[in-house]
Backbone:
């Protein structure tokens, strides 16, 4: 049996899961980069990148928007300072 070493296999908070993980598609280490980026985004903004109330709703966002962009750009947040 092969033990997976991907972070995406262990991420519990569904807000941080990559689109391919949420949509039950095959994924690789790039999904870890997605999870890490969402963690960093949340640390910088205090918000999840995509507003969803459930994994199903997040899946709909991922399926609907092929050019995924977070709700807030980091540049707009820097304007506050």
Residues:
């Amino acid at each position: 049996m092969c033990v997976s070493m991907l972070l995406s296999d262990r991420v519990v908070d569904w807000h941080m899961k990559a689109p391919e993980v949420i949509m039950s598609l095959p994924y690789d280490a790039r999904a870890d980069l997605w999870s890490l980026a969402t963690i960093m985004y949340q640390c910088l903004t205090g918000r999840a990148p995509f507003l969803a109330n459930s994994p199903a709703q997040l899946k709909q966002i991922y399926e609907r928007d092929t050019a995924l962009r977070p709700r807030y750009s980091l540049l707009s947040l820097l304007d506050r300072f």
About this structure: The chain has one domain: 11-78. DSSP finds four helices and no strands in the chain. The domain at 11-78 is CATH 1.10.510.10 (Transferase(Phosphotransferase); domain 1).
